[in-house]
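re: that complex we talked abt at group meeting.

here r the seqs, copy pasted straight from the sheet so there may be weird spacing, ignore it
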Amino acid sequence: MENKLHSIPYLGNGIGFKPELKSFIFLNRDKIDFIEVIAEHYIDVPCIKLRELELLRQHFTIIPHAINLSLGSAQGIDKTYVKKLAKLVEYIDPPYWSAHISYTQAHGLDVGHLSPIVYNSEFLEILSKNISEIQSSISKPLILENITNHAELAGKEFTDADFLNTLCEKTGVGLLLDITNLFINSRNFSFDPYSFIEHLNLEKIVQCHYVGCEDQRNQLTDTHSRKTQVEIFSLIAFLLERHVPKGILLERDERFNDHGEIVSDLLMAKELLEKIKV
Amino acid sequence: MSAIEIQGFLNKLYLEEDFRNDFFKDRQLFFKSRSIHSPETIAFMKDINQGQVEFFSQGLYKKRKYAVDQLLPRTVKILGENHKTLFRKFSKTFFPDGIHKHHSDAIHYCDFINRQGKKSILFKNILKFEKDLLKNFLRPRYFYFSVYYYNPVTTLESPDLSDITAPSRSLTLITWRKGIIKNVMPFG
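got the structure back, here u go
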């Protein structure tokens, strides 16, 4: 798996695909090198969605991003879903695919949102087992994303950075560092995001996500709907000075009509990437 | 408390309002009534921050409602203010899961609304059409036919629903193919 991560080509500047952004993406191709699709949006869907995927595949490198995998579920992962996901990844044939360090399902209840796991050895084992199972079905390299955490849980045995490093080391997965999620957690739980980055094994960071966040009742939340804040771009710049991931990607999920904001974010990211290249 | 028990408990805490209220109202009573004696479990549960959990749970609820609002735009518009109350009530009776959980949620919400007393034929018509759209998206059959008392496509094309308060009836057959509307045939 380690070698597989090293052989991933450089992708550049990306954006998460949403049907509402289809025209925008094609009209702004000069700023967009690759796209990410939500894997579940192309599983068990009518042909029209698969035709959309085929069109995208003809024009862009696509990274499938799974949101329903629930890799942190102690009950294990859904084998039927994994089969469908594997088929989709095979069809897209991406350089890698991504999912989250989280769980959504337990005891027949689906939380409906990526929920945090406890960073301890028991959950490290659960993740490792689930990852190993999925790696036997999907051979493309897997990278995992850090999520926002709004409810702290007791029983933590690792620092966040140590947990991510250990997980990557143990399972061979790469890291999808969501800079916005890191920024949100650092503000909500008062820690230094720069120091967090310095403690990460940077070589494992394959891709980054970013987007603006919102303040709701004195808590920052990842609404994926705002212009990216300067502080988030500063964190990206800080990371890029130390390590250049294969791609950085804007993850905008709402307020699609404000094209000016989206263009401005894409241009800022492109500028940061170009500075590094120089 | 095993990992699987922790996650089962947390999911109930995040999703079920009554369970959450019971827990935060009096944790000692909660432990006693559920025969929770393990010091480790009690320590874990005592450490849970009410403000953080409430914030997360409200976020989950908002996200869920927002997704349904997007999938049933006309139904939600016609329901107006009632939608908030109805959806809150509905959300306690059904917990969606799976890849297309939001679609499934919206379909079940349509069924829930259908069970709530009398409705105009026009509203029933719109509800049925939006539900059919979702059902056909989830389980696209090669061919599917559906009959409406009003032509849902022309009535629903109007962005301003005040235009369709009393459209004239027009019996309409819609043919779907692989989840997509293929033909709209008004015949009355």
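couple things i noticed - Residues 1-48 of chain B form one domain. The interface with chain A takes residues 2-4, 6-8, 10-12, 14-15, 43-44, 47-49, 52-53, 55-56, 59-60, 63-64, 95-101, 136-138, 140, 178-180 of chain B (CB under 8 Å).
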